[in-house]
């Protein structure tokens, strides 16, 4: 059955048609909501079609790493639960969750989206750690891009908490100070099915892909990070084609923010 479905999908893609009527390079409708949770320093909900992801940020004061005494840091976590997809199970992070978190983290970190030096409170003693928690609510495909977009939106929504006597007061009203954001990486994931390239795959298309590549693209079209997935190899021409697609689609998604 799966083989028949894939053969039908490949025939449709050859005609630049997908089962939901989109072309191979078209995203589903995208919506972004900000400021969902009062207890988080920043939060956002992203919907790409029926795929829905929420993200929240928390800021903590911590001791800096010894090799970077005047820089803050980030931590990204993704939790996949049966609420989003019955194939997800409760327990330790699945490899899929780890990889989504890695793609989001790498795009933010390698683009230098956040000025880490401005997160320093006192060199060698105290810096801010930005924690990003991402939870899919409904998985209808393309969690990678939805998670990345939700993280970007939550970071934009983030306000610093108040600090009293060297301790964070999470009960007090947040300050109006925002994160020192200097870049805006947009992650685009393109899958390859047969010889065709598809953006924003549905959950059925995702299950039939041969390989995929996530590309973090900056506003100036600089490529900040790449992450390949699945076992089948990609040629250099495949990668060039995907990067070209990603640069175009990143401009579209950036407008949604």
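^ Assign residues to that structure.
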């Amino acid at each position: 059955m799966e083989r028949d479905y894939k053969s039908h999908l490949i025939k449709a893609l050859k005609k630049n048609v997908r089962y939901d009527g989109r072309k191979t390079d078209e995203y589903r409708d995208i919506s972004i909501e900000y400021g969902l949770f009062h207890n988080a320093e920043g939060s956002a909900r992203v919907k790409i079609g029926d795929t829905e992801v929420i993200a929240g940020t928390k800021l903590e004061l911590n001791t800096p790493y010894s090799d970077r005494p005047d820089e803050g840091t980030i931590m990204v976590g993704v939790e996949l639960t049966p609420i989003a997809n019955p194939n997800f199970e409760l327990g330790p992070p699945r490899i899929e969750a780890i990889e989504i978190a890695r793609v989001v983290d790498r795009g933010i970190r390698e683009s230098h989206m956040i000025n880490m030096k401005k997160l320093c409170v006192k060199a060698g003693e105290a810096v801010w750690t930005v924690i990003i928690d991402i939870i899919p609510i409904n998985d209808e495909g393309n969690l990678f891009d939805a998670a990345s977009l939700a993280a970007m939106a939550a970071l934009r929504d983030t306000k610093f908490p108040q600090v009293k006597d060297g301790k964070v007061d999470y009960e007090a009203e947040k300050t109006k100070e925002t994160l020192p954001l200097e870049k805006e990486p947009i992650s685009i994931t393109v899958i390859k099915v047969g010889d065709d390239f598809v953006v924003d795959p549905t959950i059925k298309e995702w299950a039939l892909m041969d390989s995929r590549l996530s590309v973090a693209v900056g506003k100036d079209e600089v490529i900040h990070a790449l992450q390949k997935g699945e076992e089948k190899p990609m040629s250099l021409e495949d990668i060039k084609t995907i990067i070209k697609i990603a640069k175009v689609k990143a401009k579209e998604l950036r407008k949604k923010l």
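The radius of gyration is 19 Å.
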